[in-house]
Design goal:
Helix content of chain A: 55-70%
Helix content of chain B: 55-70%
Number of strands of chain A: 4
CATH class of chain A: Mainly Alpha
Number of helices of chain B: 15
Shape of chain B: globular
Strand content of chain A: under 5%
Largest sheet of chain A: 2 strands, antiparallel
Number of strands of chain B: 2
Structural class of chain A: mainly alpha
Distance between the termini of chain B: 34 Å
Oligomer: heterodimer
Radius of gyration of chain A: 20 Å
Strand order of the largest sheet of chain B: 1-2
């Protein structure tokens, strides 16, 4: 039992970073802009956040700086994809290159930084006493984890129950119609790409300042940004499904680590303990499962005729044919 | 009192008082081009490379480096003398093959960003042949072609899986190809840490000589000029593949189908082209080319399988294909330039410089593409205001 509680508890923490990135990407995609640069924005957020926290001694300042760095990077994508009407796939890819390279340049020597303050943790007094769920959700959790708890329903409410949320969905589904009703498609698309970038930066900064503190060059994220892009599809652009996916993948990361330490699993000798080399197959699992999850998401989308926002990836040009 | 005519009901266009806010008297207007001059795409590509160097230099100066010095070092270390030029060409060989791999997929609007993983799996396939199939007395005429076939086949399988998922279930190939990268890295790790490990080191034993692709320096006896030149047969494999891909794209029915799918998938489907089958085959061919690059790298350069066999060839390939404007012939010079960048920036600190430059180059290229499609005009705001 403790085994599973440990895994789920740490999954909630790791999942929080994934959650920020996924919801950020979800906002951008809802607005019709595909941003494949999540990995780059996360790395920039991580390195900026860690660097600023190191220089100023204030982790919250680092967090804000990380968000700004992510937003700055996503602004480049917004400019190229919205104003210059470039291919969003290639632009997003170059954002990943740029973010990775830039963060390596800026983070030179930062991995040796010591004494960086991290975001404080908190145990909620009463709630943490609930059996099973208490220790998983409310015991010694970084404050950011609680931000994640709030963010998910807030994002859902914003998208589905408010007027700006309606506009957001409109510019992603049918920008020409939204434009004809006086919604400023270009400005809103810029805005939501920036929101996505800020959340991507926050995701990175929460990794380097709270969840796995430190700067480990590109291994800080090791592909989490790409998993986030995949989760958006699995989530079918719904924040609650995004949260389920994010926490699930967070737990999986921990499970992969913990499985190597157990001698016996369910009365059978643990093959991963016997043969150290089999660990590489364990480490494949998150990436393989991303593919599986994508297959599930895509099949459901086909069956229920749900899918990506109709205008996703298509630059909007006023007066031109097309969505 | 006269009844107002409908006309008088309309608001009379009164001259509006000039807004107090300052308005920029000119604005940019985009006018779609009917035709694009042939030289223009190349000019914008060149311009974007220059732009990237300037921006990269500014970043470098910001973190305390000397950009002019760094660029001079990169250029000298990459193209300064015949010896380093040969090293540059060695780095360009896998880039030509992986660049073609991305190119053929991008032509069909399939975003294969898994060339890196396909490269690793191709290297695995080639190593499998050396480790498990032949001993060191076998003829190289048998071993090396088998390695190439196996490298191609493994890479093709790695590309075909996302292709099948995309064709059959509509699964986004961008993410699946990328996830396949990670799976390939761990797959190789399993073998080089375990079964094939050389005395516990994380690499396989050096291949026997019959698995080494010939280098130009091997013929130094006949041609003294070749001594020390490390260019290997992989370069010629890349040149041959370029010819083959160009022929395939522009002279065969399949190539026509690929280009048609890329230009307009719906029209292609109505024309009776099998999209699912083409998706699988194009990604398989793409993966195969990247796998071949992996085989050439372990057989021609590294001579063993290890973790670090690629400084990101599969990712740089995306930029190579795009900078070449998806033209197979242009892949060769672009690959040489980027091979030079890899060689030249090896000793440059900070180490992320080359990747950052690649990112800026790609950004600048796609950003500048608008210049090829639209004519940008500066117009007086008042005159053109029609609303």
């Amino acid at each position: 039992m403790n085994f599973w509680i440990n895994i789920l508890a740490s999954g909630v923490s790791t999942g929080t970073a994934l959650l920020f990135a996924t919801i950020g990407e979800l906002f951008a995609e809802r607005a019709g802009i595909l941003n494949l640069g999540v990995e780059g924005m996360m790395l920039m957020g991580a390195v900026t956040g860690y660097g600023v926290a190191y220089a100023s001694g204030n982790p919250w300042l680092g967090l804000v700086a990380g968000m700004l760095a992510g937003a700055f990077l996503s602004f480049l994508h917004a400019f190229v994809a919205i104003s210059l009407r470039a291919d969003q796939v290639v632009s997003g890819l170059s954002l990943t290159f740029l973010g990775t390279g830039l963060s390596l340049v800026l983070g030179e020597g930062l991995s040796k930084a010591v004494g960086v303050q991290t975001i404080p943790s908190l145990t909620v007094p009463l709630l943490s006493q609930i059996p099973f769920f208490g220790p998983i959700l409310f015991e010694q959790k970084s404050l950011l984890v609680y931000v994640g708890y709030v963010l998910t329903p807030a994002a859902w409410f914003y998208i589905y129950r408010t007027r700006p949320g309606l506009h957001l969905r409109a510019i992603g589904e049918y920008p020409a119609a939204a434009d004809s009703l006086g919604i400023n498609v270009f400005a809103l698309r810029y805005f939501y790409v920036l929101v996505g970038g800020a959340l991507g930066g926050l995701a990175g900064a929460s990794l380097s300042l709270s969840i796995s503190p430190g700067w480990y060059s590109e291994f800080t994220t090791s592909g989490l940004g790409w998993i986030a892009v995949g989760l958006v599809i699995f989530a079918q652009w719904n924040p609650f499904r995004a949260a389920i996916g994010a926490y699930l993948f967070g737990s999986l990361r921990r499970l992969v680590l913990d499985l190597q330490g157990e001698q016996v699993i369910a009365f059978f000798p643990n093959p991963f303990f016997q043969d150290r080399n089999l660990q590489f197959f364990l480490e494949m699992i998150p990436y393989a499962l991303t593919i599986v999850v994508l297959i599930i998401g895509s099949r459901q989308a086909l069956r229920r005729r749900l899918g990506a926002p109709a205008a996703l990836g298509i630059p909007y040009v006023r007066g031109e044919r097309g969505l | 009192m006269t009844t107002p005519t409908p006309y008088s009901l309309l608001p009379t266009p009164t001259p509006r008082a000039s807004p107090r806010r300052f308005a920029f008297p000119y604005r940019l207007e985009l006018e779609p081009r009917m035709t694009t001059p042939r030289w223009l795409p190349w000019a914008t590509s060149l311009g974007s490379v220059v732009f990237a160097l300037v921006v990269g230099g500014l970043v470098l100066a910001y973190v305390g480096g000397d950009p002019i010095d760094a660029y001079a070092h990169i250029f000298n270390a990459a193209f300064g003398n015949p010896g380093v030029l040969s090293d540059t060409l060695v780095k360009a060989s896998p880039l030509i093959l992986t660049g073609l791999a991305c190119l053929i997929a991008f032509r069909a609007r399939l975003w294969n960003i898994g060339a890196e993983g396909q490269f690793f799996i191709g290297a695995f396939g080639a190593t499998f042949v050396v480790q498990q199939m032949f001993d060191k007395d076998a003829s190289p005429w048998l071993v090396i072609p088998t390695m190439a076939l196996m490298g191609f086949a493994c890479g093709a399988l790695w590309g075909a899986i996302p292709g099948f998922l995309r064709g059959r279930f509509g699964v986004n190939e961008i993410i699946t190809t990328l996830m396949m990268n990670y799976i390939a890295f761990f797959w190789n790790d399993f073998f080089i840490y375990g079964r094939w490990s050389d005395r516990g080191f994380q690499l396989t034993p050096t291949f026997p000589k019959n698995a080494w692709m010939p280098r130009l320096s091997d013929f130094a006896d006949q041609f003294p000029a070749f001594s020390g030149i490390t260019i290997h047969a992989g370069l010629f494999l890349g040149l041959a593949a370029t010819v083959a891909i160009a022929y395939l794209l522009f002279r065969t029915r399949w190539g026509y189908e690929i280009r048609l799918i890329g230009d307009n998938a719906r029209a292609a489907e109505y024309a009776g082209i099998n999209i699912v089958r083409n998706t699988v085959f194009v990604l398989a061919l793409s993966g195969g080319l990247a796998g071949l690059a992996g085989m050439a790298e372990v057989s021609g350069v590294v001579h063993r399988l290890q973790e670090r066999i690629s400084p990101g060839y599969g990712f740089t390939a995306i930029i190579v294909a795009w900078l070449a404007k998806l033209n197979p012939w242009a892949v060769i010079p672009v690959a040489i330039v980027f091979g030079g960048l890899i060689i030249g920036s090896r000793e440059i600190q900070p180490s992320g410089l080359s990747r950052m430059l690649q990112g800026i180059v790609l950004f600048a290229i796609i950003g500048s593409e608008i210049l090829n499609r639209y004519r940008v005009r500066l117009v007086r705001a008042q005159l053109s205001q029609s609303l």
